[in-house]
Design brief:
Number of domains of chain C: 1
Oligomer: heterotrimer
CATH superfamily of the largest domain in chain A: Nucleotide-binding domain of ferredoxin-NADP reductase (FNR) module
Largest sheet of chain A: 7 strands, mixed
Strand content of chain C: 15-25%
Mean pLDDT of chain C: 91
Order of helices and strands of chain C: HEEEEEHHEEEHHHHEEHHHH
Number of strands of chain C: 10
Order of helices and strands of chain A: EEHEEEHEEHEHEEHEHEEEHEH
Number of helices of chain A: 8
Strand order of the largest sheet of chain C: 2-1-5-6-7-8
Shape of chain C: globular
Structural class of chain C: alpha/beta
Low-confidence stretches of chain A: none
Helix content of chain C: 25-40%
Low-confidence stretches of chain C: 329-335
Number of strands of chain A: 15
Largest sheet of chain C: 6 strands, mixed
CATH topology of the largest domain in chain A: Rossmann fold
Distance between the termini of chain A: 35 Å
Helix content of chain A: 10-25%
Chains: A alpha/beta, B alpha/beta, C alpha/beta
């Protein structure tokens, strides 16, 4: 029978701790054939199982060009992520996916890209950045504004430095006031303010903004002032999900099922949705 | 009686004694009676009092959306007034903030009174700020309150287990029992906790036994027998029988009956040096 | 037509042949539900308006294992389930229940097919029982159905003198009754259904005001239980849980309700629908706006179970009438 709820078995290849409560995990299909044939588009998510605990929804945060494994990144928050915190290399977990829609990487070709994220929002942005860098010629200027509460809360901090090495890439790191250390060389301030002060040219631009609702709320007017309008601002929505395939009704928000028609939405689309997320 | 009731409620709203009256309404005379929240004096005309006024309105006193409405007046029958006593003893209701209107009640249910009414001793509610109406002559207090449980306990353990299996098989875990019960007010119910999972959420026999029995135990010594859980169960499970057996246990072993006397300390949560310890071996 | 006696004999034959047969029955005194039947003697064919539950549980059980897992050190073994494809007959289902199954087909087949549902569905033959009475909670006629609506039914029994008129609607229905009916020059006369109480178009218009303050007041008495959702023939939201121990267990699909406070609660503690009014709004929106927009069908068949089973008699109909009452007359008339 075709069981849409049945996960594939994955082997945990590597576990990396980023902060006091954030880890990223690299996994690979136990069935080598499946790994070879697996493909996804950046922005899509998966349902990751810890048998006996449950399933969690995480974005697939690796680039779709990387073929021998996929990655997810999570913050230790509840029952299932607590259990994910305890996994080790060699363990077996489950994976269902890829689900959802994806970033319009083709539509973004030729555009300048601005990536804005806060804290645990880096992983769903990271995959898009790597993808764009791996197809560098297709995209214009790339600006990344990424911040966290303190220097110890930055996720994928080492990759930020790697990205700065690429051509026409500008990385702006920031931490909240009071979150810096004497060695900190980045900005200090809240993301919307740091973005405003950065004077990024915003012609022919698409922006991806992911973060806590309050950060998004204050970043949007800055983008607007810069000249980036709602149809060109993208975000990835986070809703409680269970089935991931548009059946269980949980992620339903207004006329959309976030697992099927999302989680990637433009601000224009998001503004049309009821405030139910 | 209904006119006096409506006038009383109207006046309470008009002179600002309360912001809302929790009462019974019935928009369609052929339709059901249900709780209403009257905030405007003119709407006091919507209040009804008849044999279909089943709901225990005190369950709303612990809900945040209702508390946010301000000072409350609530209509109570005798059984409902008992749950109010327990709520107050458990510090869930500030009695001074609630105006309690007692309704003399000869029993609810048509054409026959509900099971709980045939063993009722509180036709005149106790502990209210006022009582409206009087009890018909034909109704008298009954003493046979554990008759149903006594009868049931005559069955063998196997028969009783078979009975409960058949009942709990139908449970769909809707938690209507929990919602209707005034004493189920935990901010996070045990069945909603997942670290650890104490009760399987599945509507399997295992999960259903665990849920219903745990709920009964959490009500041991607290349940006043208002019977709402049984009335609202969409699967027709005889929950009252379960609760009644524990109430009987509380009375037999500790001479305690929930909600009858605000001065008697609650049996759960009270330590008495004379408590028997013969169950510890 | 078919006499009651012959019908019951036919039901016993189905049961004897190993077909799972379910229909209305008195589970307790005066308490009727759709349940699996052990014999036709248990089958109720008259004297009831609507059973307290619906027939969705024969396609979408309240608790269903979706696979089993065994934990062996670092390794995990998964065992798939084979969902039931035992033939089943649902007999004497109300038209509001049979229509609901046809409406549910849309979501369970959307994109990925849920074979737990589709297999049971394919293996089932549904026989409706037309209604000769209704109560104050029925409103099938307000959602385009009626006491003898054929939607979702493979065959229909219409009560008449001497038994039932048998109307075969699909091939499955014809196969079921082939050679078992007798010709008759009489046909059943089905009385009119309930008066139309509102129109889905009017409701849709009323629902467009998402922030309508009525949601706060009209739903105050709601107790946040799942009685409406679980007895509703079209509600289908579910939860997925793991149940087991250190050695293994199963993952299961369980009925869930958007009315329960935990439904949208995030692990972080954030709950987009923190207040009951928001949850009631979601249910109504889902039924009368979201599902029709997506699948072209109103997710409600007017059976009235929600109101009948609700501890405080707050059904979808009552809420909608209040919503529509707030609207100017012209809106109702314009459609």
């Amino acid at each position: 029978m075709s069981n849409i709820y049945m996960p594939d078995l994955m082997e945990v290849v590597e576990v990396k701790q980023h902060t006091a409560d954030v880890k990223s995990v690299k996994i690979r299909f136990k069935d080598a054939e499946k790994q070879k044939n697996f493909s996804f588009r950046v922005g899509q998510f998966g349902m990751y199982s810890l048998f006996g605990e449950g399933e969690s929804t995480f974005n697939i945060c690796s680039s779709s060009n990387w073929k021998d494994s996929i990655e997810f990144c999570f913050r230790k928050t509840g029952k299932v992520t607590d259990a994910f915190w305890r996994i080790d290399e060699g363990d077996t977990i489950g994976f269902r996916g890829p689900y959802g829609n994806s970033y319009p990487m083709e539509a973004w070709e030729g555009k300048n890209l601005i990536f804005i994220g806060g804290g645990i929002a880096m992983p769903p942005i990271r995959c898009a950045i790597w993808y764009a860098l791996e197809n560098r010629a297709k995209y214009g200027n790339i600006t990344v504004v990424y911040g966290a509460r303190t220097t110890r809360d930055l996720v994928f901090a080492d990759e930020l430095d790697q990205w700065a090495e690429y051509d026409r890439v500008r990385i702006i790191k920031c931490v909240d006031p009071g979150g810096d250390t004497p060695e900190w060389k980045g900005e200090v301030g809240l993301i919307p303010n740091v973005l405003a002060a950065a004077n990024v040219a915003a012609d022919n631009t698409a922006a991806l903004v992911i973060g806590p609702p309050i950060m998004i709320k204050f970043t949007l007017p800055v983008l607007d002032k810069m000249g980036v309008s709602a149809p060109d601002i993208y975000t990835s929505l986070e809703n409680r999900m269970k089935c991931g395939v548009g059946k269980c009704g949980r992620c339903n928000c207004g006329p959309v099922y976030v697992c099927k028609e999302g989680p990637i939405f433009t601000m224009e689309q998001l503004n049309a949705l009821p405030a139910d997320f | 009686m209904i006119e006096e009731l409506r006038q009383t409620c109207r006046k309470l709203l008009e002179d600002g004694t309360v912001n809302v009256v929790i009462a019974y309404g019935q928009s369609d005379p052929e339709g059901p009676v249900y709780p209403i929240f009257v905030t405007k004096p003119d709407d006091a005309e919507k209040i009804v009092w008849n044999k279909q006024c089943f709901a225990n309105l005190t369950t709303y006193l612990t809900r945040k959306e209702v508390k946010a409405l301000g000072r409350i007046a609530v209509l109570v029958k005798g059984c409902d007034a008992r749950s109010l006593v327990v709520l107050e003893q458990e510090s869930q209701v500030d009695r001074a903030m609630v105006h309690v209107i007692g309704l003399a009640c000869g029993g609810v249910g048509e054409p026959n009174p509900a099971g709980k009414c045939t063993v009722c001793e509180v036709h005149m509610p106790r502990g209210t700020d006022q009582i409206i109406g009087s009890v018909p002559e034909t109704v008298s207090d009954s003493q046979d309150r554990y008759a149903a449980v006594e009868e049931f306990m005559k069955k063998s353990p196997e028969e009783r287990l078979a009975f409960w299996k058949k009942e709990f098989e139908r449970c769909v875990r809707c938690y209507a029992c929990r919602g209707a019960c005034p004493l189920c007010y935990c901010n996070q119910c045990i069945v909603d906790k997942n670290r650890p999972v104490a009760i399987d959420t599945s509507a399997s026999l295992k999960g259903n036994f665990a849920w219903n029995i745990t709920r009964a135990f959490h009500l041991a010594g607290r349940c006043v027998g208002c019977g709402e859980c049984t009335r609202v169960c969409p699967a027709g499970i005889d929950l009252r029988l379960l609760n009644e057996s524990l109430a009987r246990s509380a009375e037999r072993n500790f001479n305690y009956r929930a909600g009858m006397d605000p001065e008697t300390p609650p049996v759960i949560g009270t330590y008495n040096a004379e408590d028997k310890e013969n169950f510890i071996r | 037509m078919i006499t009651q006696q012959a019908l019951r004999a036919l039901v016993d034959e189905w049961i004897g042949a190993g077909t799972k047969v379910a229909g209305p029955s008195y589970v307790k005194k005066d308490f009727c539900q759709y349940v699996p039947l052990a014999s036709s003697a248990e089958l109720l064919l008259e004297g009831f308006i609507h059973p307290r539950n619906s027939i969705k549980e024969f396609f979408f059980p309240r608790h269903e294992k979706i696979y089993e897992y065994a934990l062996k050190g670092h390794e995990v073994e998964l065992a798939d389930m084979s969902p039931a494809s035992t033939p089943q007959v649902i007999i004497a289902a109300r038209p509001c229940d049979t229509a609901a199954v046809a409406i549910l087909d849309a979501v369970f087949n959307w994109g990925d097919k849920d074979e737990f549902y589709t297999r049971r569905r394919d293996a089932a033959t549904i026989v409706a029982l037309a209604c000769v009475q209704h109560d104050s909670q029925c409103f099938c006629t307000s959602v385009g159905l009626g006491p003898d609506a054929e939607k979702g039914a493979d065959a229909m029994l219409l009560p008449m003198d001497g038994g039932f008129e048998v109307r075969c609607i699909t091939d499955k229905g014809r196969a079921l009754f082939a050679g078992r009916t007798q010709s008759s020059d009489k046909t059943a006369v089905i009385p009119e259904g309930p008066k139309v109480k509102m129109s889905p178009e009017q409701v849709r218009k009323a629902l467009e005001d998402y922030e309508n303050p009525l949601w706060k007041t009209a739903t105050l008495r709601c107790l946040s239980c799942g009685a409406c959702s679980f007895t509703c023939p079209t509600c289908h939201c579910f939860d997925i849980v793991d149940e087991g121990n250190a050695h293994g267990g199963c993952r299961a699909k369980n009925w869930d309700s958007c009315q329960l406070c935990m439904f949208t609660k995030h692990a972080s503690g954030h709950n987009p629908r923190n207040v009951q009014g928001q949850r009631q709004r979601q249910r109504t929106q889902h039924k009368f706006r979201i599902y029709p927009d997506k699948f072209g069908e109103v997710l409600c068949t007017g059976c009235g179970n929600c109101a009948r089973n609700c501890p405080v008699s707050l059904g979808v109909l009552g809420t909608l009438i209040e919503l529509c009452a707030e609207m100017p007359e012209s809106v109702g008339e314009s459609k």
